[in-house]
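User: Show me an example of a complex going from sequences to structure tokens.

Assistant: Sure. Here are the input components:
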Amino acid sequence: MHANNRELSLTEILSTALSGMRATAQAASLPEVTEEYPDTRPALPWGTKAQLYVEVLDCISCYKCAKACPSDCIRIDSVRAAAGTLADTSDGHKRTFEVIRFDIDMSQCCYCGLCTGRSSYVPAESKDDPAALAAADKIAACPTDCINFYPRYENATEDAGNLVYHFANYSFDEAQTRWNLLTPDKRRTTHPGKPEADYEGAPRDIPDPRHA
Amino acid sequence: MSSDIRDDWFARDPDMLEQEKQPDSVHFGELPPSEQLEEEPARNLKASATPSRGYRQKIEFVTRGQKDLGESMLMNMGPQHPSTHGVLRIELVMSGEVIQDVRCHIGYMHRCAEKESENSTYIQAVPYTDRLDYVAPMTNAYAYSLAVERLMGLSVPAEVEFLRMAINELERIASHLLAIATFGIDLGAFTPFLYAFEARERILKFFELLSGGHLLYNYIWPGGVQRQPPSDFHARMEELLRDVETAMSTEIDPVLTGNRIFVDRTAKIGILTPETALAYAITGPNLRGSGISRDLRRDEPCARYHELDFEVCIGKGEYGPIGSCLDRYLVRVAEIRESIKLVRQCLPRIPEKQFDVHAGLPATWNAPAGECYFRFETARGELGIFLISDGSAKPYRCKYRSPGFHSIQVIPEISRGCYMADMPAIIGSLDFVMCEVDR
């Protein structure tokens, strides 16, 4: 069962060595495939699952994204707004609840894309094609296309708490004050029974990756 | 520890001194008196099925009919050894440089994949199946999707099925490229590793364009796929296949298979006889390497594999006994060629213009009550998926039968009597992924 220690003949040694060297020589003439990362930053294709971004003024608080999420990383709190005070979404949906807190813990996110809107379900070249978008609307979780992935990939931080992104236009204190002022029938949350979590020190605003 | 230092410590900490006076006190690194091992008379045991219990168990002297090779030594390989392909701890009972016995310890990567799948809806479990075998995620998601389709009675349009099959075969190529690359690097061949990774990277880049993920895709869904393929899908696919074919025939194959030293090094070690392979329920390229022609794509055709023409590659034992490490490697190399042929057959059956990839998706994810076992030929062998549905949107029970789990069990059988230096080659030739083994 032990490997045999038979000696190779000179022709075998030469042919073996030469075939390897020929392959190496052929590969030397090919173009480089590696890239010097910090100097050259690749532009990832449209729809790359890298960074979730929420256009919070388009959110109608339907919570379908939070229900679709396998790792339960989306938390939304919203309160009923007075009639006529909220503008419609950009694609004409009525809004009755205002989102005071839309937090996504990107350290829990498994980058599956089940929460996203229709834009993430079409290839790059048809992202402005209404027919393709309408077809993708059938399966997209978000009805108003307000939550989507963007190819912004340098998201590393020194603190895991910084990976909790806040997308609502309220600070934590403002949201808590507003929440406590209202009666339970006027407020909704994806996480009932978990009224708050300590997200101090997390960034409130992130740059809009669509314009980066 | 000298006694005066010890007294000094106790003088500073009266509680510790108090504890010391108690008759049953236990200190770090010492067993309580009741559990201390008794001295057993030396025995010359035959093969023992007793599982190892860590440091407490004495090393049994395993002779197994061989000549007594002298004093044996216990060696640990892993769990962080680079050639264990994940986190696998291997205990080797060595006699000099010859392996007498092997015990494999698994469980370092256990992540409750089955339980997570039971707590998720059928569509939410697809990202978890990607993480079962992260080297070939598309194949796992495809197997799971086919199982759910069988459970729910979904029918998928032919063009979507061919699209998924083409992607699945491409993923098989990517997985086999990694397998032969790491097999080479375990034996010290670094250059083909880089060549194979370059080819694999092209496939992953294509998948990234298709699905948005570089390694974990969540692309193949029960009833369809996640996104429309881009309009230049066919052109890109053709270019990709050409690149992989060129890389195989000019770079990877001549440097490894054409290398007489590599062939001599691997042709006579790790012999997995057909009988042993069948006894241990080995599947996939490892079984075919032992000369048994068994491929679920041909024997139990699912999806639309019966419409395609391909050969089942088996090991022939040209350079040594059949079922050696080299045979398993050669089967993988031949399967890459077969998969390229399969993708080429799928491509004309996928329409060039945009088509509805979501046509087969169900309206709700509620499966009818019942159960279903489905097995699929992945790049590593037979992946079995057992689903029990109670009529809700989540499976009542989900069980994965992973091929790597069985490959690991055969390591002791095929590595007894080999040299220590052959162990990385044997492990590399079996090509398991620990994430899938531990699930």
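The lines above are the inputs; the final block is the predicted structure for all two components together. Confidence is low (pLDDT under 50) at residues 25-31, 40-67 of chain B.
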